[in-house]
Amino acid sequence: MKKSLIILLFLILGCKQLPNYILSKENPEINKTRKAVLLSAFFGLDNAMPQKSMGIWNKAPGKDGMPLVFSHEIDPATLNSNVFQITTQKGDKLNVAFATFKPAIEAFELRTILLIGEFGNAPDNKPKEVEIISDLKTRDGQNLKGQKIKVTPLKDGPFISYAEYFSFDQDYPYSEKGRGCDCPKTETETVVRTVWAGGIRATNGKELGEKELTSFTITLIQNSDTLKVHPFHIADLDDNDNNIDLCIKVKGTPILVETKENTAIDPRGDHNPITKKEIIGRWK
Question: Computed from CA positions of residues 29, 35, 36, 39, in that sequence, does the dihedral angle turn out positive or negative?
Fold first, then answer.
């Protein structure tokens, strides 16, 4: 009898699907005072999702890929592929086959959703617009239904869609090493997280690193002074997502991040233009 109960428990637990993302313990209260918006829709790959994308969805290879970036983290309970509709250049209304947070699944990263399916073909009938046609809510309860945005064309390079700053505190889920690890804890005064419209690497195809440090400029306020500094380190790498952390040694409040053109490429090899974004505080 005892053995039967153990087997039954094993089967129940085995059938229960565990979340494939990490929710932060706290959702910043300030988000309730900020209007949630869809920031970008990036037509990243046209019939070209790679074979390794089977790790995201087993039918993904050869499909289109389109990351969406939002101002707020999304409530996972409301994420479903039927929430989205694609309109093509010729006016076709297309459904989305699969929607996921992957590969941006770490704490505080759930503002990027990857859409996979058939969204039209460039250049003759490329995707023109994405609309949220059903309930999609942020973690603080705002409903994004009805929002729409123009799709960034396939040939365009990646750009920064969102940027925020934060500091390490005792409750921060710090990751010292491995994929997606954080800035060096003892040397970092502030982290500037940049969320790109799509996944990026350095122009040589490798992870961003020391060579690219001076390509990023952070404007920060220090007392009554305005300073421009470069990060001393780049973190949150080697996890194939669109989140890049810039590690800052200098004290101050970051307000703007700028990146030189041809600093990074997207999965298709398109180079970024000059891109800049205002930086907001994660917690204030």
Answer: negative
